[in-house]
Amino acid sequence: MNGSLARRLGTGDAVVIGLGSMIGAGVFAAFGPAAAAAGSGLLIGLGLAAGVAYCNAVASAQLAAQYPTSGGTYVYGRERLGEWWGFTAGWGFVIGKTASCAAMALTFASYAVAGSLWVQRAVALAGVVVLTAVNYHGITRTARLTRVLVAVSILALVVIVVALAVSGGARTANVSGLPFGRGGVYGIAQSAGLLFFAFAGYARIATLGEEVRAPERTIPRAIPIALGITVAIYAAVGVSVLLAAGPRVLAATRAPVVAALAQAGADWASPVARVGAAVASLGALLALIAGIGRTTLAMARERDLPGWLASVHPLHRVPDHAEVALGIAVSVLVLTTDLRGAIGFSSFGVLAYYAIANASAFTQTAEHRRWPRALNVAGLVACVALMATLPWRSAAAGAAVLAAGLGGRLVLRRSSRSL
């Protein structure tokens, strides 16, 4: 089949791509806004975010085993709930993760180079172009490069945690007193929504379902493994930076890991943190481009997006038109947009995506079930609740763009019927 992708990835490759999607800029940046929302209660928020991520992950794994094709919840929603639900999931994923791509590219540049904003934008643009080209030349190249980037990122995080532990600057007094900050329970919930942004990479494994060998076995194994490793790393980093710097210092900086190292007297490890942040951002960007390209491919196959985006390169077996279009869109955002609110905006779209994933998994029959329906209910309720707690500007922007996509599809469908 000329329009099919090649199954070249094993369990290890799938786990690595999932890790590359999750261990990105979030672990180096998200603890700051989370601390501003919840104080040291961000650790509770981290636990909540991990719990929601687990519910979503098992729903995605169960669905991917039944529907081993590209597209993720876009496909699952269409198959289990109807084409409008599938489109809503796919559109939410595409808009949220396109913004995430730009945020990752700009985060990479801010850690990698000093200089003016336009110098950083130029470096970010170069990163987008290079990684789009890597994805364009085949998924096995994506997996190989992601393996290297993930290894460097994890090594940097291990150095950071050890540096904070042996510095002598970690103090339990930094997390004593009122644990919930000014936001109370709402602040903790908001921190969970913001930290969820850092976890939302395991779906990349499901969106690669058409390129994984034995997907009915590989995907249900790979998603929980990747998520479990990420939760352990995030928990270690979160506890370490809180003990070293305390929530007030973390809330006041855009580089909480570097601030924690400075506060603990471990400045020697700051270059490691900067390199790790830059490399992690590149790893997440690489995997994001692969995942969004394949969701776009699936939507174009169903004519929910222009049909020319359904092209698969005859040699490299990748969605070539979709990845080039994505690269152009992200490049424009990198050069023109202030993405400080990108975390909230992205979380809104992705939480909508996973809410539909949980609803889809709930409808699966016993022969396709691997986990209890209660997890699907919990995941659906939690996704909707976290959407409501996000900063209102991000939530309003996300809802508006989501509605615009639905309205555009309705207009196109009515126009096609009248012809």
Distance between the termini: 32 Å
Mean pLDDT score, rounded?
83
The count of domains is 1
Taken in chain order, the helices and strands follow as HHHHHHHHHHHHHHHHH
Question: What fraction, in percent, of the residue positions are helical?
Answer: over 70%
Q: Specify the overall morphology.
A: globular
- Give the beta-strand count: 0
User: Considering the protein shown, what is the CATH homologous superfamily?
Assistant: Amino acid/polyamine transporter I
CATH classification, class level = Mainly Alpha
How many strands, which pairing sense, and closed or not: the largest β-sheet? none
User: What share of residues are in beta strands?
Assistant: under 5%
With helices defined by DSSP (H or I, 4 residues minimum), what is the helix count? Answer: 17
Structural class: mainly alpha
Uncertain stretches = none
Oligomer, anyone? single chain
Q: Architecture, CATH level 2?
A: Up-down Bundle
Walkthrough of the structure:
This protein is mostly helical and 419 residues long. It has a single domain, classed as Amino acid/polyamine transporter I (Up-down Bundle). 75% of the residues lie in helices and 0% in strands. Helix 7 crosses helix 13 and helix 7 packs antiparallel against helix 14. The radius of gyration is 20 Å and the shape is globular. The model has no long low-confidence stretch (mean pLDDT 83).
Key features?
mainly alpha, single chain, Amino acid/polyamine transporter I, 419 residues, globular
